[in-house]
Amino acid sequence: MIELxxxxxxxxxxxxxxxxxxxxxxTLRIGQGExxxxxxxxxCGKSTLLxxxxxxxxxxxxxVVFDGRxxxxxxxxxLARIRSREIGFVFxxxxxxxxxxxxxxxxxxxxxxxxxxxxxxxxxxxxxxxxALRERAEALLARVGLQDRMSxxxxxxxxxxxxxxxxxxxxxxxxxxxxxxEPTGSLDESTSQSIAELLVSLNRDEGVALVVxxxxxxxxxxxxxxxxxxxxxxxxxxxx
Length: 240
Hints:
By secondary structure, this protein is of the alpha/beta class. The protein is 36% helix and 25% strand. Helix 6 packs parallel to helix 7.
């Protein structure tokens, strides 16, 4: 589904002494529905690699191919559409909108799509589409155990609950790929375990490919395949 081919990432000009090479010839293939975890020491480039996989950043050299499309060759509008519709993101900081309810936060990624189709569909079809999206949002919140918190705002939730909202939001558009960057990094051990169980079950039940960057041994031990980033290169450590 997605393939990285000889990807490098450097910061600074190649001809300057201060150039820092973060990724050095990374090649990676991720199949549909596969789950992998990327581990490695702080500052080794794990988040940079995840951002490149998700099209949030571009490699210095090499290619990132998503469903046969070279992300570097796409117009900004098309790349934004892929990030919105086909890739879900979960970060260590949930980035929820504090003024919106839990349900509204989950629906935020659908707004651009609704706006883009406003002139192409009838008002009846648009209302039906909005109803279907609301039903999916409610079903996802029930799936993550927050069916009784839909009208709450983020400030009224615990850290673990806010992260569950972020997971539901990432899945609202039925993405093919879910990327999670240290999703349990700011949570206590018990809450981290519940988030780990949630991600693994969603990978299985939703059929979404899962890529997780983490320092957590608990989370790494639950994911299908472990890759270690060290010295700018990836090493396959197999299954836990």
